[in-house]
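In this section we walk through a basic example: taking a raw amino acid sequence and producing a predicted 3D structure, encoded as discrete structure tokens. The instruction is simple. Fold the sequence below.
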Amino acid sequence: MTSDVCLVASGDSRLPANQVCWPAQEALEARVIDAFAALGRRVVRGHPVDPARRHGFLDGQAMGIAAFRRIDPDIPLVVAEAVWQYTSHVLPGLTRHRGPILTLANWSGRWPGLVGLLNLNGSLTKAGIRYSTIWSETFEDDFARAALAEWLATGRIVHDTAHARPYAPPIWPALDWAEQRGAALGAALVRDQAVLGVFDEGCMGMYNAIIPDHLLHPLGLFKERLSQSALYAAMGRVPGTAARAHQAWLEARGTTFAFGRDPDADLTEAQVLEGLAMYDAAVRMADDFGCAAIGIQYQQGLKDVCVASDLAEGLLNNPDRPPVADPSGRVLFDGLAVPHFNEADEGAGIDALITNRVWMALELDPSTTLHDVRWGEVYRGHGVDEFVWVFEISGAAPASHFIGGYRGARGERQPPMYFPRGGSTLKGVSKPGEIVWSRIFVRDDRLHMDLGRGGVVWLPDEETERRWQATTPQWPIMHAVLYGVTRDRFMARHQANHIQVAYAPDAARARAALAMKAAMAHAMGIAVTLCGDLDDTLAAHQAPAAVPRLPEPPA
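The resulting token sequence is shown next.
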């Protein structure tokens, strides 16, 4: 076997994103080359930098296949990611690669390289491809250097995942009633069946986000395969008066929009109205097709013809939202959320539906969302002294999660690099409180759920702004701590770029919700793994006295 190590870089399919992010990738690759050189190994690129396109990413599936034809199938292979990447660009070649595979990313929030890494890892796990993974700010730290040395010597890296253990009922004998009710909910869903409306699959190369039918059907879930073009056509049938009524509803609740004049750079009222027409059309189509949940892909297809879907998505996941009525005046899904899985991530779709039914059974607010696992740092101050994650999604979080509710929500234009036709986000700061987090993924041709508890801490405005500026300031942000799960244990175990979160009013009801959710998923045939400390409370991570009086949403 050669002593060289081959490096490949999967990128976006959007040229502007690849060009803007290329300097960050160059910097990562320089660090990786130095780290391997310190261990006596040379790194060679598996594909060239294209001077005409001004980047060195694999930016298409065919390009990736062609590149892997030229790569020694037995060479140790590194997939290095400083940016969001489409796993489909490298998946074909990785399915046939025989040498050891290492995925790695820089620890940075500037561009979503960590998000891309976790998507790649979840996709490789689903595909049954053996790989190792590592992450670091500089690749000069002992943790990363030891991991690279281990991989070069053995072909694998073994991480500590002692925080995870199989679900075995009862979790708490006193909450046996919750597990019994959860099992009944699972049996009812399997028996009665339900429809997931999917507006096109495979968003942004997310192979892990496509759940095969043969794994869905035993759960009682069936896909209604819908088209983004049908949604776009339905948007055109929404009267302008309806979209304006939705805007007036939001503004009456206190939502503000950062309007400007240049549609190429600013948010305009026309963009907001188009997004609200999408919301209206999505609710109508969910009703027309009898969908229990829906997922809009957007980034491939709709991004070229209309505004971003995030404003619509943030409204859908909230029972408190602008009313949509049919021609007879019947309000559709009256008083209910329309569970939505962003970017048509079907693992999140199953999760959102289970969450919705459990939280409704407990008479809790079922507002839920997925977030990107974007980044994080240790924070010390205001009663906090630990690692705090930045969970951040492109605008699709419900306002019920925000400090102040809709009064704490602000619409800003999506970044032109990713969203050429603009559209409004639904931006806010997640309120302090107890959360239940989870992820459903595919491994060994079976559905799995990782399930744990956490809390959202309050950070001062200047720290929130610093974290926004280090990531994407137009998007909603959550300052999360995961009980009993360290940064590195989480990264070693998590199998997706997304994480599902829902609030509970207090620790006691968070435990009941978790117990019921675990039992429901287990009854449906999903392999449930419990993660971290399930008995922890937010007060152990930030004393209530350290949190200032925050605005409450109106009753």
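Looking at the output, two observations stand out. The domain at 173-546 is CATH 3.20.14.10 (L-fucose Isomerase; Chain A, domain 3). The radius of gyration is 23 Å. In the next section we compare this with other chains.
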